[in-house]
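Board work, copied verbatim: Fumarylpyruvate hydrolase
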Amino acid sequence: MNEMPQLKNYVIKPAPVPTLAVAGSDALFPIHRIYCVGRNFADHAIEMGHDPNKEPPFFFQKNPDTIVPLGQDFPYPAETKDVHHEVELVVALSKGGINIPVESALDHVYGYAVGLDMTRRDLQAEAKKLGRPWETGKAFEASAPCGPLHPVSEVGHPAEGEVWLKINGETRQSGDLNQMIWKVPEMIAYLSRLFELKAGDLIFAGTPAGVGAVVKGDEMVGYIAGVGEIRFRVS
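↓ predict structure ↓
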């Protein structure tokens, strides 16, 4: 006779596990952490006032529950007057590790999605000026709208192809995955020297130039060749 599993004696109810949908399935991908790589497209690095040839990759984090799934709006956040869009390839890991070799890094990838790294640019700029962390500008609630995951078995490993974002039908951002300074295997390998990566981790892989502000009522449409299209309304 099987015994019932013993219930944990939590003092408060645990928060639900954040998840992403898997395209074409009712399966869910549980999210462990969200890492974002900064200034990973040369033209965006220049746009933000930096030299892309001198910087190693750097990373910041968003909280897992900042994900906004397709079908919901992006709520305009509080305490800001300058919220920017950044369309990005999202890499989802099926297994982790430490000191992962570049040569085997892609073996750790479950699939890919199209995501948005929404940024309170005014708060980020203030933090930069004062030498403070970026959490208020990057890790606020609902700051990571994201489409469903497309497994590697269906889409392979996208390394080139169009990346764009339109606001109300007007193209704002446009680039190509082959313009990424640090490619996906390199990002995974480098990041695994800084953190122990785990199954369920997401990596937002950087954005092309053209970032800009959104206002309530705007419709954001992002696209990555081979991965698909996402659509979010700013409310």
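The chain has a mean pLDDT of 93.
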